[in-house]
Predict the structure.
Amino acid sequence: MGKPTGFLEYTREDNIDRDPLERISDYNEFHIPLDAEERRKQGARCMNCGVPMCQSAIRLKGMVTGCPLHNVIPEWNDQVYSNHVHHALSRLLKTSNFPEFTGRVCPALCEKACICGMNDDPVTIHDNELYIIETAFKNGWMKPRIPEKRSGKKVAVVGSGPSGLAAADQLNHRGHLVTVYEREDRIGGLLMYGIPNMKLDKSVIARRQALMEAEGVVFKTGVDVRGETAAKILEDHDAVILACGAKKARGLTAVVTDLAADPADGSLDASAAQPSPADQVKGVRYAVDFLTENTKRILAGGSETRGTARGKHVVIVGGGDTGNDCIGTVIRQGCASVTALEMMPAPPQKRASSNPWPEWPKVLKTDYGHEEAVAKFGEDPRVFKTTVKELITRKGKLKKIRTVQVNFSGGKLQEIEGTEKVIPCDLLLIAAGFVGCEPYTADAFGVRLAPRGNVETAEGPDHYRTNADKVFTAGDMHRGQSLVVWNVVEGRGCAREVDEYLMGYTSLREQ
């Protein structure tokens, strides 16, 4: 422990954020890192406690706190304080394949379990991690690690999100010949097209791709694995990993009323109408499709006016990370207003006594998109305990929505009478989560799906081998919608099982 009294001498200092009204004018990353001396002080705050909960990934009351990768956090914090960043890097890479991703987009489960957080602010573990890996790239320390020997075994990874990339990285370093197939034009999965550029600049993914290619991984983009393509991949490889994500979006059902059908008074009596899928209405989009389209325009360097939120009243259904990313995106596109609907009640502002450390804190989170909405429009865009009841269109195009407040009782959603409200809405984005993988790739390889839409594994949820011969699965396709850090865990775990299947044993590290 480099500084035994560091947690007493120094206060927590986060990376500095650009002013919200400045940063909404572009799609650049907006966190400004601390200088090296200030970062050393943040490393010094780590107590090197006897039982470091930060690396535990312990499950308490159904929620995980602590790092799922079991990063040896106290060790690299100590090295940051001692200004031995190269040594810090060696410890970080023992457990983490892509700290440049998690250091940007992870919600920092580690920090929620930090013992400093019992009575003060936790250590800036998340920012320290990013400092280590970015210092390494800047100084040229991240050089290709090419395996000295090759096993001759061929592995196909279908899907290039964080789980597929982690599996490919592990198996390639083990000496297997790895080919990654991706249906989009660029690798990364939701890292590329589900997370906006201001949160994760796409050059970071390209930088990692170049390193992996130099180490021997082959990437094939624009390959949608179906039918004969799947059969050929099975024939040509000794093992196949399906890591295609959980991209089957949860829909929204609402009554649709077209005012053009009743021009006399425009009444909104929908009591006899039948609810229908909202995504069939012009002006309703799934959030990930919307974010993908925007990122592709940015990468192409083209206009951002076609199909965007410019000048529109936007409503976003869903209060998670994707919903927040949509808020930040539509503000940058120049929306006239933004409202975010969340069916659940607002969490408390502070951790309750019934939710003690080190449990995951069930508190209200104000993210970058919410901050930007407050700066731009003067108020938090979130409306809790509310959902969409009716879509009001004119000549088939969305113009307004009718919302209603709701309660959950007995596992059912109940409307609260007298709470209906009609608000303008030209663009409705559905960010209500996902209900499993898109089944066609699973069908092409003959693997079974569980009732909740994820791929079923032969030996239970903690394993990765499917019912089909030599076919494995990992990531959201296996566990359901989850965090980037859990997907890296999945990729590493799957790689270990594939290696053991191919070689009869494995030397890959357990989590």
About this structure: The two ends are 24 Å apart (CA to CA).
